Amino acid sequence: MRDLAVGMGYLIKGQRWMVRHPRAWGLGMLPALITLVGYVVALFALAWWTGDIVRWLTPFADDWGSPWLDLFRTTLAVLFFGGALLLALITFTAVTLLVGQPFYESISEDVDRSVDGHAPESGLPLWRELLIAVRESTAVLLRVALWGTLLFAAGFLPVVGQTAIPAIGFCVSGFFLTEELAAVALARRRVPLAERLRLLRSRKLLVLGFGVPLTLLFLVPLVAVVVMPGAVAGATLLARDLLGEPTSQDPPGESAAATGPTTGAATGPGPSADPATAG
Question: What is this structure's pTM?
Fold first, then answer.
């Protein structure tokens, strides 16, 4: 349970770091604001057409009597829009990070320097970093889509579908949201996607402590814009913790001692972790 509190602590520390750097905070909000406008328009359009989409998908129910027809299609519409919202929460972060890549890279590097005076670099040109980011984000989104499909189907289960499944959905969102944000720092260390996912799974409570509260905050559109830069800062601290590097709350060397030795993740631009070939 300690990891759960530590994860929440990194989220708070990231926001505090941005308060102390208002100029970086302002620049970091711009990509999130641009992305938010596009997503709000898309979600409003989807909400408007959800009823028609559900009717088109369920012609077999046209002859059902009342109240079963309305109950069935209303439930399906809620689940459909909920799945779209779940996907939007994850893709919002990925798209925002791509739009504001230079800004968020700079924030992450500054956080690293504020801890130990050093910011690892990937050594790759910007175009290749963007190409790798798009490819890995797509791979993450496919995983999210798979989870979303499973949760959508499970939502039809009596009782469990209306209680446990939404809670699991928030945990799934928090996990992948954290992965996207921590990738800013981990990609600079040439840690490929497969290794990032393994690191996150090894500290699930830490990841959920950071990601689930952030997912809830992201449900409020304008709040998502405000907290996005601080989320990148906090995720950088979380990434350092995962790799056993010192964080802002630990004296040098203490974090590694507390979490144990690292498990083979690359911490610099070494030749053994080429993201261009990572799965």
Answer: 0.74
